[in-house]
Amino acid sequence: MAMLVHACLQVIGRQGYEILINRSLDKARYFAQLIKEHAQFELITEPELCLLTYRFVPAQVQQAMATASAEKLQKFNELLNGLTKFIQKTQREEGRSFVSRTRIKPERYQRQDTVVFRVVLANPLTTDQILLDVLEEQQQVAALDKEFLPRLLQMAKDSTA
Length: 161
Fold this sequence. Notes:
Order of helices and strands: HEEHHEEHH
Low-confidence stretches: none
Strand order of the largest sheet: 1-2-4-3
Radius of gyration: 18 Å
Structural class: alpha+beta
C-alpha cells in the first residue's frame, strides 16, 4: 500500500492532489447550490468536504411542511422516506446514474429518521451537466411512483385547504 501511495504522489504530485481536492470541493458547493435553487429538492446538509445530503420534496410539500404540526411533519417524513427509497432504488436499477442513500436525524425535523440521498463528489470526471442530469432523472423517477408521491401531494393539498 505504501508503494501505491508513493507512486501516486510521484505521478500526480502534491499540486495535482491539491487540484483534485479543490475541484471536488467546488463541485460539492456547486451541486449544493443547484439543489437549493431547485424548487423540487431540499438540501439537508451543507457540503462537508465533498459530501452532502439532499432529497426530492415537491414545492407544495415543502410549503405544507413549513407550517405542519410535529405529528403531521412525522407523517410527511415517513412518506418522503418511502419516496426517497423508491427513487434511489429505481435510479440504481436503471443504471444511468447512481446516488447512494442513508438515514440521518436532522435537527430541523425533530431528530426523526430521515432517509436522504448521499453524494460524495470525488470523481474528477463528474461534470456540471452530469449533476443536472442526476436531478432531472430523480424528478422523472419520482413521477413514476404510485405509492408515496400521490399521498404526499394529497396531504400537502389538504394541509393548505
